[in-house]
Amino acid sequence: MRPYLMISNRNREDDRLGSRLATMGFYTAPADADPGKLHTLAAWTKVTRQAFVAQLKAIGTECPIVPEAEHEDQKLLCLFVHGYNSDWEDTVNDYLLIKNGLMEGAGDMGQLVLYSWPSKGNVAGYLPDRESARDSAPDLSGLLVELSDYLTVRQRIAARTDDPGKFCRMKVSVLAHSMGNYVMQEALVAASKQLNDPQLVSLINQFVMIAADVDNDLFERDQPSGSDGNLMANLCYRIAALYTGLDQVLGMSAGLKHFGTRRLGRSGLADPGNVWDNVFEFDVSDYIDTQDSAHSAVFESSPAIAVVRNILRGVDRNYIARDVAPYAQPAAPQPIPMPAAAPA
To answer: How many angstroms separate the CA atoms of 202 and 15, rounded?
Structure first.
């Protein structure tokens, strides 16, 4: 088991985190902490940024080096960025659900870190949430730049000493949901500009965009070189957009914007043949439980989680669902046959 780690720029309200923007804080809880108590700040220890980053580096150093032919088994450091309409307790619930599904037991993939930004936690807060998402980008981009500097230093040391063991032993990936993808879009663009559009280092290994509340033409290649999608694709080794046309929440989102552009998480890529080569889409409609909200069903459906696991491992896009059976939807209720009419 691994510790519970959280980064948040929410304000503090008694023994919980609220919905207003505040200074970024860093929190840890031991691996043996009671998950049922993590909805209170008393269960978390607030630490300095330096101590938090040091803990991440220590976790990475403890991971074994795997042969190149087994790179899919390399441990990862995964940042989870939640969506809109989520109060702090909701984000902890989602974090625990993903951590249990991907990072524990025999399927241990590495360390999951929650990034909890100040969503209002109600449907009426959609537009304020979008503003909070944009305002959260500078804090997150600062972390990404710091991470990039660390990875670059490790690469240079490994190259100078000809010692592969000096490389970072964890792949850095991101799992973003709903408007959390807009947070990442703004943060990656800001980070790219701060780093002067780096070409030699992929800051993010796998970026999994679930029910992404962003424009579905974001990654088209015929946009200007400094476009958001171009900068994002340059910083990520691979970007996977998971979508389903069953997502009614994103249908509402598109209606609120009136920009004439559909949502990536509902419609998929606008033109799959005109995107950067490291970007692809995957329709999860057959892998989710449609009895629940399709917007968050990926986290609650075992087949969909298995697909996410394969993407994070780096399995080729053509094989991420090869051994995953579609979700077995319950059979529709059959009409009760009417008794035959009595003969006249």
So the answer is: 38
User: How do beta strands 4-13 and 110-116 pair?
Assistant: parallel
> Is this model's pTM higher than 0.85 or not?
yes
The dihedral sign for the CA sequence 77, 116, 131, 194: negative
pLDDT digits (tens, 9 = 90+) for 231-277: 999 999 999 999 999 998 887 665 555 456 889 999 999 999 999 99
DSSP 3-state of 142: helix
Per CATH, the architecture of 59-313 is what?
3-Layer(aba) Sandwich (3.40)
Please give the Cα distance from 234 to 192 (Å, whole number): 8
Instruction: Calculate the alpha carbon distances from 242 to 88, 195, 317 in Å.
Output: 24, 28, 12
Which sign does the torsion angle of CA 303, 76, 151, 174 carry? positive
pLDDT score at 168: 60
**Residues 6 or more apart in contact with residue 220 via CB below 8 angstroms:** 229, 270, 271, 274, 275
